[in-house]
Amino acid sequence: MSTQTLPEVLTRPEETESTGDDTPKMFHYVQKSKIAESAVLGNMVVALCGETFPVTKSPKPGSPVCPECKEIFEGLPKEPPGE
Q1: Residues 50-59 pLDDT 10s
Q2: DSSP 14-69
Q3: What backbone phi and psi angles, to 5 degrees, belong to 22?
Q4: Lower CB density within 10 Å: C or N end of the chain?
């Protein structure tokens, strides 16, 4: 298993909508730099799809991801190796 590190300007998934059992319906991609700030201060973040929410949970492998965020994220330019 390999781990990919994304540049600070890109994004990673974070949770929004919850189901009745407190399990998130799906996770969204948001700016890395905003995740900790939101988790600590409760600030709202904006996902790539435009959804706005405070970060409350971290995704686990296999968590459902917002299809719109995923499509936008996959279309972003990737950082060249070594930068």
Answers
A1: 999 998 888 8
A2: EE--B-TTS-BS-EEEEEHHHHHHHHHH--EEE-TTS-EEE------TT--B-HHH
A3: 70, 15
A4: N
